[in-house]
Specification:
Distance between the termini: 62 Å
Strand order of the largest sheet: 1-2
Radius of gyration: 22 Å
Oligomer: single chain
Structural class: alpha+beta
Shape: elongated
Order of helices and strands: EEHHHH
Largest sheet: 2 strands, antiparallel
Number of helices: 4
Length: 118
Amino acid sequence: MRILFDAVLEGLSTRVDDTIKVTIGTQEMKPEQAAALFGLRGKFIKVLLSDTAIEQKEVEKVDKLQIKDESNSKSASQRLRSVLFITWQQSKQTTNFDEYYKSELERIITHYKGKLNG
């Protein structure tokens, strides 16, 4: 499915996991076009942004891109770091995150070392 529309790039913000949130405002849309846009909600899509005319060769490059759902492809250590970051934020620690992260990893390592035989 392809939906073509003019828009204004209204905002960009970074997220904890280093991804970027892009906010786009559209012009008024016909109901069918809006319905098609809502049909893409939550799906991985291809995006080409340009403030100039889009050439056919650029469209062809985008068409060749493979859509990869990498939302769940973080390694276990990346997931642990993300959880520890949110825990650090919510606990309002006085130390910086790097110090907190190192101390929590040491606590986890010590815990599991204590379970080793001998």
